Amino acid sequence: MTILALTDKLMQQVKHEISQRFGITDLGEANQIVGLHITRKPNGDIKLSQESYLSKIIQKMGLDNANPVHTPMDINVRLQKHDAEDPVDLQLRHEYQVAIGMLMWAAIATRPDIAFAVQHLSQFSQHPAHEHFTAVKRVFRYLKGTIDVGLNYSGTAFDREKIFRVFSDADWGNSPDDRRSISGYVCIASGGPVTWSSKKQPTVALSSMEAEYMALCHATREIIWLRSLVNELGLLANQPTDLITDNQSAIKFADNPVFHARSKHINIRHHFVRERIISNEIQIYHCVSADNKADILTKPLARPTHDAKMESLGMAPNLRGSVGRT
């Protein structure tokens, strides 16, 4: 059992009341929860990582001695789906799906840096080829070199007025198979990511503005949930949440309630973001693309850009071992 409380006094009271009803053993401060390792630093900062889990899955893949790489995906490799009529290698499919399943837990728990790769590679799970499996192994090789990377949070970075900020991004027409775009967002609180997402959009966007606007809607839904959560925790979110994107046209479209002829085809559900602006729950700001932390969730990045995004998320990698190609 894990207990969270605003004060030590309240926590001791809760533990005392539980001990009156059940036999319990107090193990002190939590150092591991559902496989997530918690490291407390002398200055009060906290780090969440999965070194033990990552070591196990790398070993299970037989990649203990593989050379690490600097990025989870090769920007020079363009993967596509194979013809559905081609024969399926059942053994390869089984191994591929097992590998994707192992990566998925890391991608949603402590490693937003592999979220796009896992999302992208999972699309080939039903009919994988050897080039797809090679791409999956590359993600494991990347994890091998960055196994100690985790999420870092600092109490000094906590802002009670602006508890979290959300960065949103989209990569227009990313998929060569169906030309749908990728939405990505990352919510930053206390200096580190708390939630993130990399997801293919449900419909084809006709412009980069439309893709970015749908990504804003995707991020806005997460913001509404997070605001509800912090309110339940007693951290009232009175101020609108900052939603940051690098597309000026999407910001103007979100702020302007007038439906123009060239935008009336956009699904009504995506205009949910406008209501939240009017209700003062979100406030949209612009940033240059180089400062958009969500960029890492929408496409493969070259090493310099990847490292810069990791540093901006407080997850700067320290690659171990000999290095393969970048």
Automatic annotation (TrEMBL):
- Please list the residue ranges annotated as the Reverse transcriptase Ty1/copia-type domain: 8-73
- What Pfam families does the entry give? RVT_2 (PF07727)
Q: What InterPro entries does UniProt report for this protein, alphabetically?
A: DNA/RNA_pol_sf, RVT_2
**Superkingdom classification of source:** Eukaryota
Annotated TM spans: none
User: SUPFAM superfamilies this protein is in?
Assistant: DNA/RNA polymerases
Q: What is this protein called?
A: Encoded by
